[in-house]
Write a structure and sequence with these properties.
Layout (H helix, E strand, L loop, with lengths): L2 H12 L4 H18 L5 H9 L3 H15 L7 H36 L1
Helix pairs in contact: 2-3, 2-4
């Protein structure tokens, strides 16, 4: 195995795909499965055609099924909303803590 093979594998591992590329790959996979009437070998075939990782494509399929409502789970939209709300909650807790400390500080100053 040469240095180029190693570089190619590392680049493939670190590559990020936009949502449109993921959707396109999943659509191709579903179309190929329907055309062939089987799912055997379709992930490998589509991944090679598009130059994406097989494991990446395998992960995108269940999420696409959840997003489409054909599989149970947390949709991408729900997941993003949950992430946003958790971040907002963290920020509000931090602000509340600062305000409580300020209240204690200024309360002690007034008493003294």
């Amino acid at each position: 195995m040469g240095a180029m093979d190693t570089q190619t594998r590392v680049a493939a591992r670190c590559r990020r795909y936009c949502d449109e590329q993921k959707k396109h790959a999943v659509r191709m996979l579903f179309a190929l499965r329907e055309e062939l009437g089987t799912s055997s070998g379709t992930v490998t075939r589509v991944a090679r055609q598009l130059g994406c990782g097989e494991e990446s494509l395998r992960r995108w399929v269940p999420q696409a099924e959840v997003d489409a409502g054909s599989r149970a789970g947390v949709s991408t939209v729900e997941s993003e909303e949950l992430k946003r709300l958790r971040h907002q909650n963290r920020e509000l807790r931090r602000a509340n803590e600062i305000l409580q400390r300020a209240a204690v500080f200024f309360g002690a100053e007034l008493d003294g």
